[in-house]
Amino acid sequence: MRLDRFLSGQTALSRRELGELIRHGAVTVNGTVIRKPDAAVQPETDAVTLRGSPVSYSEFHWFLLHKPEGVITAARDPKQKTVLDLLDPADRLPKLAPVGRLDKDTSGLLLITDDGVTAHRMISPKHHVAKYYLARLRDPFRPEYVRKFRDGILLREGGREEACQPAECCAIASDLAVLELHEGKYHQVRRMFAAVGNHVENLLRVQIGMLQLPPDLPEKRYLPLFNKDIESALKNSDISTVCAFCAENLSSYWIK
Ligand code: URA
Fold first, then answer.
1. In this structure, are 50 and 170 located in the same domain?
2. Which of 2, 68, 131, 198 has the fewest other C-beta atoms within 10 Å?
3. Does residue 255 lie within any of the structural domains?
4. Does 131 contact ligand 1 (Cβ within 6 A)?
């Protein structure tokens, strides 16, 4: 792989900036200063430094963000603050994008990656990766929601009614529900509760597959993820485990 390409995949600097740095002698490969942007490097084995700091190689990058309310899920936007604006400039690698979408008013677990293939696997309804949401409801949770959500709530999509996939839900307090979804229609959780006559006051995503929102991760903060975390996000969990986790950690989230 070309040296400038290697560096542009691991840093937030542009190819032009990197070209300048390389030509000015700021980059070494295996201890030797290399001044040619098109010099060949072996990403897995060569030791590369930039301005004296080692640059480690990873084909893809993953971050787990505790998204706050009020920020939009987009890579960039001319007017509004996006989830990528919450990353340190040094972490804003060129191909990063959010995995799926949380509404502006929804908080919680959001993944950000430059691994488009795995991201697609996580959001495509075909792969059945479960997403778990904690919702604070305006009115008390009613036992009949369980059956109605399992039967598949009908939502209006592009002028016609479409059934949602069967969904599990349960209550952990009279006004707090946990919902498991395997798809991501527009405003789905809010619209599903509206369809049964209730209203979602606050919404937090707590888990994807088996990957949980760490209760000690404050809003707007994020963590890098590793292969084992991504494998965990692709594994099945079940709603009773998630309910127990939410009940235990309620005081750490916005739902008090
Ligand atoms: N369902 C919603 O209503 N909003 C979200 O952000 C995610 C799921």
1. no
2. 2
3. no
4. no
Q: Which residues contact 252 (CB under 8 A, 6 or more apart)?
A: 215, 216
Does the pTM of the predicted model rise above 0.85?
A: yes
- Say how far apart CA 243 and CA 238 lie, in whole Å: 9
Query: Is any ligand 1 atom within 6 A of the Cβ of residue 172?
Result: no
The CB of 73 under 6 Å from ligand 1? The reply is no
Band of pLDDT at residue 227, cut at 50, 70 and 90: very high
- Give the residue carrying structure tokens 């959010």: 98
Is-catalytic flag, 216?
no
Q: Does residue 196 lie in a domain region?
A: yes
pLDDT greater than 80 at residue 114: yes
- Taking the C-alpha atoms of residue 210 and residue 207, their distance in angstroms, rounded to an integer, is 7
Closest atom of ligand 1 to CA, residue 105: 6
* Ligand 1 atom 2, closest CA: 187
Residue 182 Cα to ligand 1 midpoint, Å, equals 12
Mean pLDDT along residues 72-101? 95
